[in-house]
Amino acid sequence: MEFQQLLERIVQDSITHAKWLNTLSFMENAGARKISKCEHPVSVTLIQLKHAAEEHRHAYYLKKQIGKIDPELCTTYEADELLAPIATRQYLHSLDVKACRYLQTAFNLNKEELKYAAYLFVTYAIEVRADELYPVYQDILTKESSKIMVKSIILEEEGHLEEMINQLNEFSAEWKLHAEKILTIEKELYDLWINAIAEEVSQLDYA
């Protein structure tokens, strides 16, 4: 099932759509927490604080959108209120672990340096993915004349990607070479996540 077709199915069913929004909210929140975890105890940058704050806001915004479907739905991040909860929880964590393993080998960094490198490369990979995912979702919402909107998130994610590229340019002249490796890791994990969601959604069709 193609991603667009999957989203078209998801938005047709209120409960599944609420779970999708909640799943995105969970991932934005997990991303924000990971950014904060990567902060240096004293040398945290303004841009890193900004990213963490904006990702947390995205998590809040997506959670609020659920209220346009039904305020009683998906009030927590419990497994039964997410789509493909196991794959959802594993996606970012596995990306972080695998990226750290690669970056440690590539750059031979100390603990604090590795945290910062992971923040740069993992956030970059997530922003590249967000730049693909949210516009497709918004197009479907627009086509369906949905009350739900993610346009504000799209604009901020585009800004984040530009900021990450600027930081990566400062980090290493050869960052693109290493970023390609991280993007390959991310794609494998993303495909597992989307396939798990597609399997769950297709089963609902025949329930």
Question: How is this structure best described in words?
Answer:
Helix content is 79%, strand content 0%. It has seven helices and no strands. It has helices at residues 3-12, 14-37, 46-66, 85-107, 111-143, 151-171, 175-205. Helix 2 (14-37) packs antiparallel against helix 3 (46-66) and helix 4 (85-107) crosses helix 5 (111-143). The chain is globular and about 50 Å long. The two termini are 18 Å apart. 34% of the residues are buried. The mean pLDDT is 94. It comes from Chryseobacterium lathyri. InterPro entries: Ferritin-like_SF.
Put the structure in a nutshell.
The protein has 207 residues and is mostly helical. Helix content is 79%, strand content 0%.
**How many helices?**
7
Distance between the termini: 18 Å
Count of beta strands? 0
Please indicate the percent range of residues in DSSP E strands (runs of 2 or more).
under 5%
Unreliable stretches covering 5 or more consecutive residues: none
The shape is globular
The main β sheet shows up as: none
Structural class: mainly alpha
Secondary-structure map with pairings?
Layout: H1 3-12, H2 14-37, H3 46-66, H4 85-107, H5 111-143, H6 151-171, H7 175-205
Helix pairs in contact: 1-5, 2-3, 2-4, 3-6, 4-5, 4-7, 5-6, 5-7
Features:
globular; Ferritin-like_SF; 207 residues; 79% helix; Rubrerythrin
